[in-house]
TrEMBL record:
Source species: Amnimonas aquatica
Protein name in the entry: Alkylphosphonate utilization protein
Matches recorded under PANTHER family: PROTEIN YJDM, PROTEIN YJDM-RELATED
Start and end residues of each Protein YjdM N-terminal domain: 3-32
Source taxonomy: Bacteria, Pseudomonadati, Pseudomonadota, Gammaproteobacteria, Moraxellales
InterPro entries: YjdM, YjdM_C, YjdM_N
Amino acid sequence: MSTLPPCPQCSSAFTYEDGPLLICPECAHEWEPLDTSAGAPAAGDDARVIKDANGNLLQDGDTVTVIKDLKVKGSSLVVKVGTKVKSIRLVDGDHDIDCKIDGIGAMKLKSEFVKKA
């Protein structure tokens, strides 16, 4: 039987696991368990690794170039090949990149359709 830590808010001993979180049934507080040896979250919190079409590592603030014509959903606009996108933000989800494209506005792009500029 594993021993779970008490709730950090109300010190209740009746905590339980729900996926990657620990939950207190008395005060409804939810938190991630800490690895007691390193003080870091225990459940595999690896850094996001997002790569462009050529395999280069992308980071927040990078400038990328679109490598394929991309139709904008719900519009007749098209993001043309060679369009430079500045100051990208990496996000979780199906579309890895959150950005703003001149003439189109805010968009989400997949990293497989861009290359690092």
